[in-house]
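FAQ: What does the model actually see?

It sees only this:
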Amino acid sequence: MFHTDEQFYAQSGRNMVESGDWITPIFDGKKRFQKPILQYWLVASSYKVLGISPYSARIWAAIFASLGILITYFTTNIFFSRKTALCSALILPASYIYFLQARLAYTDMTLSFFIALSLFSFIRGYFLFEKNGDSKKYFFLFYVSMALATLAKGHVGFILPILIVGIFIIMTKNYTILRRMYIPGGIMIFLLIALPWFVIMLRLHGMDYLNQIIYTEGVERMFPKSKFTLYYPFAMIRYYFPWSLFLIAAMVRIFSLRKRIFEKENQPILFFIIWALTVLIFFAIFRIEHSRYLLPSSPAIAIIVGRYLSEADDRGRRTFPEIRWILGLICIIYSFAAIAMIITILILLHLDLLPMIIIGQPLILIIGMAFLIWRYRFSDNKLSENLYLKHRFSQSHNRHANIRIRIGII
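And it is asked to produce this:
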């Protein structure tokens, strides 16, 4: 009933409930030191409330995925338009990797949520500081979220947020923000939340646990012997399709701004670009290759694509001519997918092996393609109508101005 990695958390959580030992995870009779404690606690707590079942083990992934969509919407609505926020909030769950991980009892959705919460808190505090607002609570939430991300999956929970924030501060050259981030107090909060469980584990299990978290989980993962590959660029295209095509187009447009990207009004989108690229480059450099490690970049990718599509919808296809080619490519790929599904359905019908859920998939693809074409044409017609009305208004305004001038002369 569980995927392989899910079993570690599901069974260990069950052992916690049955044994009463909520400190040391036990799997298959052996101590499990591979991951910090938060995910085990979450699974065990849901077992206590809802009973022991796959549903109980997986419910936290769905909860954090839903909360991730909400904070993406509200944060995007602060920095961009409501339409951009809505697009971003719809794109995020429509990304295959996000949808998949929202249904599995892994640590990755928990990690992704708390990293997103920490970074959303930072960027909110950063711009409140720029406007002389009360940024203190957001910066403290930044540290709390990092601590919880660390308890979810270890050192990556604080390394990624610090890297992203550090690169952003260096690129914007706004070093004064460091004095307002309450760093000493933030470090104390981080240590008070993240450190106690690690200290208890070290006292209970000594060098066995220390070797596991420093060497196995740290050195071996950060410095693998495998060769560098282009896994993540292709994985990003595959697992975020079709949004990955719009992401590439959005990146090309944004980088065409050159120095203007560093201007204050463009700094929010710069932050989300740094967020997305840092996650991908970090895991690519250290050759930690697994599709679910794309997950922490998902909110940033959704926001970048959401802003691009929102602007394209407002300004029309004449301003964004590449939209035509992207939609055409998507329709071609989906057409082949629909044909392949129909052939599969016919074969399975003949063999009496057809799961009912497969029947609707070609229809969903066809409806999706029809919607894309309709939306594309509707957006262009709406823009043409707006331009026509502006032109008529301008002509009317000029005509009335000429009449007033003539009356004045007379």
